[in-house]
Amino acid sequence: MNGEGANLTRLQMTTIVVMRVLIGWHFLYEGVAKLTKPGWSAAGFLKQARGPLADLFHGMAADPSVLEIVNPLNMWGLTLIGLGLVLGCFTRLAAASGILIILMYYLCNPPFVGYFYSIPTEGSYLIVNKNLVELAALAVVLVTGSGRAAGLDRIIHGLLRRRPRPAAA
Amino acid sequence: MAGEDQKGPGDPPGKPAEAMTAGKKVDRRDVLLGLSTVPALGLFGYAWKKQYEYEQKPREAASAKAAAASGSVSEINVALLGAGAQGQVLLDAMLRIPGLRFRAVCDVWTEYNQKRVVNTLKKFKHEVRGYEDYREMLDKEKDLDAVVVATPDFWHAPHTIDCLKAGKHVYCEKEMSNTLEGARSMVLAARETGKLLQIGHQRRSHPRYLHCYEKLLGEAKILGRIVTVNGQWNRAVSPDLGWPERYAIPADRLKQYGFTSMEQFRNWRWYKGLGGGPIVDLGSHQIDIYNWFLGTPPAHVMASGGLDYYDPKTHEWYDTVMAVYEYETPAGTVRAYYQTQTTNGSQGYFENFMGDQGTLVLSESEANYPGFLYRDPNAPAWDEWVQKGYVSAPKIQEVKERDEEAVLDVRESVSPDEHRVPVVLRDPYHQPHLQNFFDTVRGEAELHCPAEVGYESAVTVLKVNEAIDAKQRLSFGPEDFRV
User: Fold this and answer.
1) Which member of A1, A64, A86 has the closest CB to residue B242?
2) How far is Cα B128 from Cα B117, in angstroms, rounded to an integer?
């Protein structure tokens, strides 16, 4: 297989694990902060939507039935993805879900030519913004399976293995 | 997949997983590496705790202050009648006030609003019961001292009157009632029962407004003679309020409480017979200030308004209203303009009092118009008021580059000095007014907006809708404001 990461040096894998933990931390706090803020809703963010999918997001913001699903999904999604990435537990699932959720954020406020936002005031972006960078970083996490290098996945995979065999492939 | 039973990726190449051959599924090295990132979670927990404490500190300080003060104040048993958006706003403010013990929450939307507020109060350790019918609540909750009413306007009169008659003090949201008869019967009920009735024109207790009224207009007469007033509340287009389908109220219950549909229940402010439209919802806050600051209710009003933008199927009241009042004050006539429109939120809301010596622009917001004063260049100096701390030192008027080339037309006035009203409210906007109510319940204060004052304001504001329909200038008689 060895493309999956077995060829990485310890330093390379350590770097990826550190990156995974940092992204996980970010997700975890985004989730926890929303969970602990009473009455938090995605409506405000969705209302700011621009770009090709703006109508879809505006529709979501205006529909309480949809918000009732989107809000907990977002809060718990962020929290669980964050936990998964920090602990290296179900790392690939967490990374894939993280990519999806960030893709939604990206599409909600895409920094395309001609769009001006009032909310993000801390930088200058053209097509690429921090969402997209984090998304790409998660793609690296997804394909390198770092949870099995350092993370609970290592133990989980070990326990799930049917029976030990010699390592030679 | 290949490699599935190898050691994890990232193991140094050329160092095969020999341990696996020993027969153990998971060896010590696996456990160590498996748990290697757990400390990061611990660190996160520590950082989060610090952050949480930091955010909580002001809140805890407020509640500690409230708790400390509770020892010295008698406890008041309170019920919230109406647990919608406004009820929530009042509740958030009340939770910061010392010495309140919540006993009951009444809301006909039992599956949603009532549940939410009951749960919130339980979190704050209040033993609170939920009711759908306020009469049942009044029957069962004999210990209540006060009821805070935040129901739709057309329920204010029956709710307030029955609570007063049951021996409770009442804080009732504005508008006092959607009808003059309703408002009048509330004043009478308060008089007959001898119970307190505070109407929720919360600016009457706002420290900045009190400062302007007492110090700037009263003592300093800083504006000179006020000749004109203008004010506005502009609001951007907003969609109708919705509701989660699975929490919809059954039709028979809606009907029982005076609503024809869930849509109407959620958007009652737009319906005739239930609310009064934006001029009442928004305008009454500020027109009440006109009356207060000018020291008299108006003598005449003319108004233009209509439903110019929204769908008449779901909106009955006027989305756009412009009104002009004429006040006959001891100093002379004051003309006061007010507009509310709900299609563009620019410049938000403020009141602007203009005298021959200065201008005062203020609002209850700390973000927009938190109290600006402009001294007319010909007016006497304000040094005394600056020294006394009534107004801030003037801001130097900056000369903009483009102004250098501009020629001041002889017809233009010189720009006045800009000062600030140096009073800031860090608490929720409604807290001081509620505090004033509960202080009065304890016999330690006087109501800032008793029934009679609320009535005056209701007469002033409800007349606008009448003037729009009449398409002519209407007059108030002094008897119109008396009960």
Assistant:
1) A64
2) 10
Q: How many CB pairs under 8 A join A and B?
A: 138
CB-CB neighbors (< 8 A) of A20 in chain B: 37
Instruction: List all residues of chain B from 92 to 131 with a beta carbon under 8 Å from chain A.
Output: 120
Residues B328-342 pLDDT 10s: 999 999 999 999 999
**Cβ contact B8:A154 at 8 Å:** yes
Amino acid B428 reads P
- Are B9 and A8 within 8 A, CB to CB? yes
Question: What three-state secondary structure class fits B254?
Answer: helix
What distance in Å separates the CA atoms of residue A132 and residue A140, rounded to the nearest whole number?
A: 13
Spatial distance between the Cα atoms of B425 and B413, rounded to a whole number of angstroms = 34
**What part of B 17-36 touches A (C-beta under 8 Å)?**
17-18, 20-26, 30-31, 33-36
Query: Judging by DSSP bridges, how do beta strands B372-375 and B358-362 pair with one another?
Result: antiparallel
Is the bond preceding residue B384 a cis peptide, omega within 30 degrees? no
Q: ∠B143-B149-B150 over CA atoms, to 5°?
A: 145
Across all residues in chain B, what is the average pLDDT?
Answer: 90
pLDDT at B110 over 80: yes
- Collect all residues with Cβ–Cβ distance below 8 Å to B165 and sequence separation of at least 6: B189, B193
Binding-face residues of B in 46-65 toward A, CB within 8 A: 48, 52
Q: Give this complex's ipTM.
A: 0.84
A136: Cβ–Cβ under 8 A, 6 or more apart, which residues?
A: none
pTM for this one? 0.76
Closest-CA residue of B relative to A85 is B37
Closest listed residue to residue B172, CA positions, set B146, B136, B145, B140: B146
Secondary structure of B37-48 as H, E, C letters: CHHHHHHHHHHH
Contact in structure between B164 and B193 (CB atoms under 8 Å): yes
Whose structure tokens read 């996160």? Answer: B44
Closest among B436, B112, B430 to B243, alpha carbons compared: B112
